[in-house]
């Protein structure tokens, strides 16, 4: 029981640090470089696990990224959390789609948003409040 508790805390801290690092890079790097990095397929590091473990990993990642978003957008954003999840889960061979969209509010203002989902498992990792009717501008 204590091992599970420690593992979850370490897992959360790792994703927290990864999210902060990606958020910082998003602030520094130009958009061209970010889109080029997102379109790369990183096959250099893969850890093979079975589908039941992948589902557990998806659920744990979702919980940790939700906790991260509960801090608000302080040193984090929906894009950095989505990239964090995609980078982390791709190590375990979980195919994830990162969606980028523009939402127009009723008052006419536009908001950029991103979310992550695993189509093989029909599972949204980030962006729970996103309706299926919202169309993505880009999918990576």
Quick summary:
Helix content is 49%, strand content 15%.
Question: What is the element layout, followed by pairings?
Answer:
Layout: H1 2-28, H2 31-39, H3 51-69, H4 78-91, E1 97-104, E2 110-118, E3 123-124, E4 138-139
Antiparallel strand pairs: 1-2, 1-4, 2-3
Stretches where pLDDT falls below 50 for ≥5 residues? none
Largest sheet: 4 strands, antiparallel
Query: In the residues, how many domains can be counted?
Result: 1
Structural class: alpha+beta
Spatial arrangement of strands, main beta sheet: 3-2-1-4
Our Rg estimate from Cα atoms comes to 15 Å
Q: Helix and strand string, N-terminal first?
A: HHHHEEEE
The strand count comes to 4
How would you describe the shape? globular
Distance between the termini: 38 Å
Strand content of the residues, in percent? 15-25%
Number of helices: 4
Q: What number is the mean pLDDT?
A: 79
Instruction: Please estimate the helix content.
Output: 40-55%
Care to describe what's here?
The protein starts with a helix and ends with a strand. The mean pLDDT is 79. By secondary structure, the chain is α+β, with helices and mostly antiparallel strands. It has helices at residues 2-28, 31-39, 51-69, 78-91; strands at residues 97-104, 110-118, 123-124, 138-139. β2 and β3 (123-124) form a beta hairpin. It has one domain (2-139). α1 (2-28) crosses α3 (51-69) and α1 crosses α4. It has a four-stranded antiparallel β-sheet, with helices on one face.
């Amino acid at each position: 029981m204590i091992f599970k508790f420690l593992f979850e805390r370490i897992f959360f801290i790792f994703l927290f640090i990864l999210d902060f690092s990606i958020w910082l890079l998003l602030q520094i790097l130009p958009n061209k470089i970010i889109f080029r990095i997102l379109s790369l397929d990183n096959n250099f590091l893969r850890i093979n696990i079975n589908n039941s473990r992948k589902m557990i990993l998806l659920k744990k990642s979702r919980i940790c990224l939700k906790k991260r978003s509960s801090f608000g957008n302080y040193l984090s954003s929906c894009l950095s959390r989505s990239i964090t999840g995609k980078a982390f889960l791709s190590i375990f061979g979980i195919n994830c789609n990162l969606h980028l969209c523009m939402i127009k509010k009723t008052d006419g203002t536009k908001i950029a948003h991103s979310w992550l989902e695993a189509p093989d498992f029909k599972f949204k990792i980030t962006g729970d409040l996103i309706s299926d009717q919202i169309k993505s501008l880009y999918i990576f």
